UniProtKB/TrEMBL annotation:
Gene of this entry: SEPSECS
UniProt enzyme class: transferase
Protein name: O-phosphoseryl-tRNA(Sec) selenium transferase
SUPFAM superfamilies the UniProt entry points to: PLP-dependent transferases
Obligatory cofactor(s): pyridoxal 5'-phosphate
Length: 401
C-alpha cells in the first residue's frame, strides 16, 4: 500500500541509488529518473557523460557531498582551489566539507572577469598537488564574471593529478556551458559536475544532479550519502520531463537562447538612452550586466534604491551590484562582494535569460526598469534646479554683502 503511494523514498541506507525490493515503486521511479536525466544531460551537450543521479539537496550541499567523497581518496589534502565566484553557497560548500578554500581572484579582460589560469597553477606549485583536494570551478554565473576557462583548468588538473569538480548550477540550459564541460573532459580532467534541478528544470527547490564520466566515482558519491532520501525532487523532475518530452525541453532551450539575444539588444538600447552601457561580456551565455555608473556618481544611495524599487515592482530576477561592498563569510572577507572581484570599475545591474522566460517577461522588465531610471533622472534634475536656485541666492547674498 505504502509502496504504491511512493512513501518509501529513494535508496537504501548504504546507497542513495540502490534498489529497495520492499519499495518497488520508489526504486523504479529512482532508476527511471536517473536515466531520463542522464539522457537530458547528453541532449543538452555533454554527450560522453556516463553516470548521474538525482540527490535531494540543492547545489551547495551536493558539491559538499562531492568534496566529502574525495576526502577518502586524498587524505592529506586540505585545500580547494577556487576561482572566485561571489555566491555564498559555493564558498560554504567547501567550508561545510571541512576544507580551506584558496580563493583565486579573477582577472579583468575588457569588461569581463575571467579565470586567472597562471595564478591557479602558481598556487598549485606553492601548496603541493597532494595537499589539494580538488579544483572547484564554475560555469554559469552572473556577468561580468564569465564561465571559468574549463579546458585550461581541466588540463592543469590532468597534469598535476588533481580532481576537478565543476559547479554547473544553472548550466544545463546553456549549450555553451555544456560544451565547456564536454571540451574540458575531452582535453583534460573533470571528475564530477553538479547542476540544480530548480534552476534548469523549473521544479521546486530541493534537488540537484551529480554527474560525471567515471561510473565508479559517481557511484562512490551516491554511496557517501548517509541513509535513504526524499523521492520528491526525483518525482518532480520526472513528471516535468515526461510531460515536456525531449522536444518540449529542446524548445524551451531554444526559446531561452532567443530571449537572451532579445534581452541583450533591448537592454543595450535602454542603457544608451540612460547614458549607461551594456557591459561587453560575450562569454556569458545567460547573464548580462548594464553599468549604473552615472546613476552611482550622481547619487550614492541610488544603486541600492534602484534594487529595492525593482523588487517592490516585482522584478525579482534583476539584481543591482554597488561598488565597494564588503562581506565576511566564515571568517573570509570579500572586498567588492557580489561583483566577483575586489574593485570592479563601476556599479551595475544584472539581468538574465533563464529557462522558461517569455518575451512578455523581458518587455515588462524593461518597461519597469526604464520607469525606475526615469524617476531617478527626474530627481537628479529636481536637485540640480534646487541647487541652481540656492546658488543664485547665495550669489545675491554675496553681492549684497
Ligand atoms: C553559481 C551558483 N552556484 C550555486 C548556487 C547555489 O545554489 P543552491 O541554492 O542550489 O545551493 C547558486 C545560486 O544562485 C549559483 O548562482
Amino acid at each position: 500500500m505504502n509502496e504504491a503511494k511512493l512513501i518509501h523514498g529513494i535508496g537504501r541506507s548504504g546507497d542513495i541509488s540502490a534498489v529497495q525490493p520492499k519499495a518497488a515503486g520508489s526504486s523504479l521511479l529512482n532508476k527511471l529518473t536517473n536515466s531520463v536525466v542522464l539522457d537530458i544531460i547528453k541532449l543538452a551537450g555533454v554527450r560522453t557523460v556516463t553516470n548521474c543521479f538525482v540527490v535531494p539537496m540543492a547545489t551547495g550541499m551536493s558539491l559538499t557531498l562531492c568534496f566529502l567523497t574525495l576526502r577518502h581518496k586524498r587524505p592529506k589534502a586540505k585545500y580547494i582551489i577556487w576561482p572566485r565566484i561571489d555566491q555564498k553557497s559555493c564558498f560554504k560548500s567547501m567550508i561545510t566539507a571541512g576544507f580551506e578554500p584558496v580563493v583565486i581572484e579573477n582577472v579583468l579582460e575588457g569588461d569581463e572577469l575571467r579565470t586567472d589560469i597562471k595564478a591557479v597553477e602558481a598556487k598549485i606549485k606553492v601548496l603541493g598537488a597532494e595537499n589539494i583536494l580538488c579544483v572547484h570551478s564554475t560555469t554559469s554565473c552572473f556577468a561580468p564574471r564569465v564561465p571559468d576557462r574549463l579546458e585550461e583548468l581541466a588540463v592543469i588538473c590532468a597534469n598535476y593529478d588533481i580532481p576537478h569538480i565543476v559547479n554547473n548550477a544553472y548550466g544545463v540550459q546553456s549549450s555553451k556551458c555544456m560544451h565547456l564541460i564536454q571540451q574540458g573532459t575531452r582535453v583534460g580532467r573533470i571528475d564530477a559536475f553538479v547542476q540544480s534541478l530548480d534552476k534548469n528544470f523549473m521544479v521546486p527547490v530541493g534537488g540537484a544532479i551529480i554527474a560525471g564520466f567515471s561510473e565508479s566515482f559517481i557511484q562512490e558519491i551516491s554511496k557517501m550519502y548517509p541513509g535513504r532520501a526524499s523521492a520528491s525532487p526525483s518525482l518532480d523532475v520526472l513528471i516535468t520531463l515526461l510531460s515536456l518530452g525531449t522536444s518540449g525541453y529542446k524548445q524551451l532551450l531554444k526559446e531561452r537562447k532567443e530571449m537572451f539575444s532579445y534581452l541583450s539588444s533591448e537592454l543595450k538600447k535602454l542603457a544608451d538612452i540612460h547614458n549607461e552601457r551594456l557591459l561587453d561580456t560575450p562569454h556569458n551565455p545567460i547573464s548580462l550586466a548594464m553599468s549604473l555608473k552615472n546613476l552611482d556618481e550622481n547619487n550614492d544611495a541610488a544603486v541600492t534604491q534602484l534594487g529595492s524599487m525593482l523588487f517592490t515592482r516585482q522584478v525579482s530576477g534583476a539584481r543591482v551590484v554597488p561598488c565597494g561592498s564588503v562581506q565576511t563569510v566564515n571568517n573570509y572577507t570579500f572586498e567588492g562582494f557580489m561583483s566577483h572581484t575586489n574593485d570592479y570599475p563601476c556599479a551595475y545591474l544584472n539581468a538574465a535569460s533563464a529557462i522558461g522566460i517569455k518575451k512578455q517577461d523581458v518587455d515588462i522588465f524593461l518597461k519597469r526598469l526604464d520607469k525606475c531610471l526615469k524617476t531617478f533622472r527626474k530627481e537628479v534634475k529636481k536637485e540640480e534646479t534646487v541647487d541652481e536656485i540656492s546658488n543664485s541666492n547665495t550669489g545675491t547674498e554675496q553681492l549684497e554683502d
